[in-house]
Amino acid sequence: MSFGLGNLPYGVFSRPGEPRRVGVRVGDHVLDLAAALGGDVYAAPSLNPLLALGRTAWQETRARAREAAATGDHLVPLTEVTLHLPVEVADYVDFYASLEHASNLGRIFRPDDEPLKPNWRHLPVGYHGRAGTVVVSGTPIRRPCGQRPSFGPSQRLDIEAEVGFVVGVPTRPGERAGAFEDHVFGVALVNDWSARDIQAWEYVPLGPFLGKSFATSMSAWITPLDALEEARVEGRSQEPEPLPYLARQAPWGLDLTLRVDLNGETVSTPSFRDMYWTPDQMLAHMTVNGASLRTGDLFASGTVSSVGQPGSLIELTWNGADPVKLPGETRTFLEDGDTVTITAWTSHGISLGEVSGRILPAT
Amino acid sequence: MSFGLGNLPYGVFSRPGEPRRVGVRVGDHVLDLAAALGGDVYAAPSLNPLLALGRTAWQETRARAREAAATGDHLVPLTEVTLHLPVEVADYVDFYASLEHASNLGRIFRPDDEPLKPNWRHLPVGYHGRAGTVVVSGTPIRRPCGQRPSFGPSQRLDIEAEVGFVVGVPTRPGERAGAFEDHVFGVALVNDWSARDIQAWEYVPLGPFLGKSFATSMSAWITPLDALEEARVEGRSQEPEPLPYLARQAPWGLDLTLRVDLNGETVSTPSFRDMYWTPDQMLAHMTVNGASLRTGDLFASGTVSSVGQPGSLIELTWNGADPVKLPGETRTFLEDGDTVTITAWTSHGISLGEVSGRILPAT
Q1: Residues 8-67 of B with CB under 8 A from A
Q2: What are the strands, taking DSSP E only, across B118-168?
Q3: ipTM here
Q4: Over the stretch A147-175, which tens digit does the pLDDT of each residue have?
Q5: Residue B176 within any structural domain of the chain
């Protein structure tokens, strides 16, 4: 069972007319944690109070939730609840950590240059995104308008299949993050919707802005790190060797296969194993300058692409030159009404909650 | 008087052992709004509840605060209070709206190219910064470490003198912002500290990240738009004419002179009048793709530079080639122990609250 007692991801749900509260997914049900365990932390409208408690409390909650789930009490069918954005997102950072993705985009956009910029193998390149437009899986995505450079609805609306990491324990200003597992609570699936035409025109020299800021979707379920213990793998080898502050202290690669479905057809199955930079390195980099972390910070990996299995349409269709075949039709970029669903699982049978969204026409 | 009854900026203060609350600056005193007017909105630890109320309530509060200030009651000497970050910052966006600044940086970094990128005159270039490291004026600034590309403390630590705009009234996802004054509550001074060596190495292709994210300082006082009514001026002429969504509906240029003091010596006095893009255009651009605004969003203008009066040291010293003379010493970039204070005033005698910070050595 994908969402069995070894998984137990956390989310925020409500029943009609009732306030939001914290739950744990058990199969096709939600365990009502506030009812099962008691306590204000679980009656909160986001996971943030739980996130702030730290690793010992997370492990204790997980053990108690497993016991409670086994009793069969306080389980509400998923069909009877609404799922909400699980985290009050503080800062949102997006990395660019896949060698295949960065190389593909370099080849597409700068065919006469080296695909990778000189910094790429020395640090996990990243930037800040818009925290206020992170939405929960299932939220419809309105096609954005903007300068492409003529003004109008984006004609090159794309996806980016990513894995996101939710920070629980903050740092003080000037302090570097400690061990990955002491700060990071768990893992989400993320779709960083991207308007490639808007992005291509605006992004020099300060990076992506409106091409990304209209919406970023995240899964309703946050899988705690402890559920992924068996999926941990050594990160991919790195050349040149990273600076000491980026040295891996423990294996935080993840044996996680993603699946990208477009209108129900699987179009790609990239693996997170293939990421060049691992999430512990992203965390170390993000705080090496003394920037503080807050409870609720979300950082995402950037598009997860494997050889022949990319996590974006711009790669899959080679900038539109080679359309994807769907039953009776083709796609270069997304059309109105299209639904994209990203799922993921480990080889040990742990599934991540899906992130899904349907495109609404521009207004 | 700089902070007379025509000014009345808002901030958050506390007295020893007491909780934070909202105040209004009156000369060298703080008017305790919670005591003077009553109400939970003013007993809050940030301006956000007041910001959320909207323009009619802002104007009513301002009128009542002016009456209360005139009575002389509930005034606390500034020397007896601690000033705090006035706004719980939601998203922080930084623009790049000065023609002189963008041209200078283009000339310094890309001497063989056109100084401005092709998009620059078509849209206000901007990017998201780190909201969690926005700090109040007076907070010491720790010199960041990072890849320059060798690892170590930044050797090119710089300032950016900017004007920031605080959003009160949010928008819904998919909705464009309406009139500037219906969303924006007021104005702050901002110093966007920048580690030029870290930034230069990391910023391709996704923009500034650790070179900026360690700290951004804002003034403790937010000057409401109504205090700047007489300072409003037509924006600078623009060629080519911007797209209709960027058309100016009303004059939101500001006749505002900034002064940058380094260890007490004035090194530059740029004018906000010289900005190419006006803040109403920044707001229109930021939301044209349907990205929603939240109460507490902060967007800053980017470095304010005038001809011969730039708002950053990299421009003032032409990338270190022409050091600034101070009494008995010179500066290219900031040294440990340096204090930078940015002030600003209109020609009608309205002062903005200063933004100041002192550099601590790297750890």
Answers
A1: none
A2: 126-129, 134-136, 141-142, 145-147, 151-153, 157-158, 161-167
A3: 0.97
A4: 999 999 999 999 999 999 999 999 999 99
A5: yes
